[in-house]
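Run log, item B.
One chain of 353 residues. Sequence copied directly from the ordering sheet:
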Amino acid sequence: MGRNSQTEGRRVAQARSLGIVIAVWGWVAGSTVGVTAESTIGVTVESTVGAKAAEIALPVKSPVESLHDSGVRQVGNLPPRWIPTQLPSEPLHDSGQSVTGAFEGWFKNPDGTYSILLGYFNRNLKQELDIPIGPDNRIDPGGPDRGQPTHFMPRRQWGVFTIRVPNDFGNGKLTWTLVAGGKTTTIPMSLDPRWEVSPFFEVGIGNTPPFISFEEGGGGVQGPDPSDEVRTVTMPSALTLTVWVADDAKTAPGAKPPKTPPVTLTWSKFRGPGDVVFSNPTPPVEKTESKGAMAAVAFDGRGTTTATFSKAGEYVLLVVANDWSGEGGRGFQCCWTTAKVKVSVKSGDEAAH
């Protein structure tokens, strides 16, 4: 075999191996992060584990160079999954990059309606972006405003909001378009049966999401269902934010419980006209003896932080409670809880009048 044939053979083998690795990784990640299937951006790799990977012959570019954009990955009959556009070999950037919506899946509500669960991927390492509702941040049809964030934290943010659709939504489709960093990305959403998720119960170990309550002894909320608290604060005073949490503290059979608390809290700005500074965006959760409806679970705790605002106006703050399954349930779409706080921030002059 000649040198050119040997080199070509190595490239094809590399590409096949990479295709399988990416396919498996995309399936485990369990989310739609990237451009739409209808888009021409990215390289499609349809691969079956244990079988022949996608035929990718790369006579000029290496596999990494040719697969640096997002692409859909499918394993057997499992639903296709998307991966972020940046593989480890591509340089990461602190700022100037795009944002892509993430279709996590959908679930049925007790009243017969459906909720579409969405997060996003901000490709910047450090830059937080504000994208107002409008042409650059729209959900269609029925939008542009369907409750999506206008403030985007860096990197992957899992299941931060839901869109409720009626029980007769059927084969309907929605799209979420974001324009940032000079790039436009659009993702599709539907009730495709392959994308049904179970955010309230993880069947493997019987795990359930934490509860969040804004009053001690309150019943609390659980999972990604929408929940809005209302607060008012006058500048320059800080707003105190205290939440009570409870969790079943489930671990894999035979595994030792982690040394960290069973619940962690993360606060961020979701919407608003100015900057929000938290005294601690990840406040420690101190164990308590809760009262009321949450008192029967394995762990009860409380976490407190404060928020200050640079401008008067209407804000929405987001708090995410993760249990030991970690952010995004490590790709299994369970188990975390989100809650939002609507804050009306008044200036000193407004308060005086």
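Observations after the first pass:
- The chain has three domains: 3-82, 99-195, 211-352.
- The radius of gyration is 22 Å.
Flagged for discussion on Thursday.
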